[in-house]
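Structure representation:
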Amino acid sequence: MSVYFLCLVLFSIGLYCTLRKRNIIKIVIGLGIIEYAVNLFFVLVGYKMAGRSPILSPNQAIENMVDPIPQALVLTAIVIGLAVTALIVAIALRIYEKYGTFDITKIKRLHG
C-alpha cells in the first residue's frame, strides 16, 4: 500500500512542476515525472508477490502468474511518451529561437 502512496507523491511532484513552474524545460521535466509515476502505477497493478512469468507450458496449471497486460501497456506508453517528449522539446527550442527565453510569462506574442 505504501508503494501506491509513493506513486501518488511522485505524481504530485510532477503535477506541481507542470502547474507552478514558468520555465518550459521545467514543465517538460514535470510531464516526464507524471508519465513515470503513471507507468510505475500500472506496473504495480499487474505485479504479484512471488509471481511467475505468464508463459504457459503443456501440463502446467495457471497459478500465481503476473498479469502481462499492464506491462504491454507500459511498454507502449513509454514509446509514445518518448515521442511526445521529443516533440515538446522541439517546440520549446523553436520558442527559444524566436523569443530568446524559456520563461512563458515573458512570451507575449504567441499567435496560433
User: Anything to note?
Assistant: The chain has three helices and no strands. The chain has a mean pLDDT of 88.
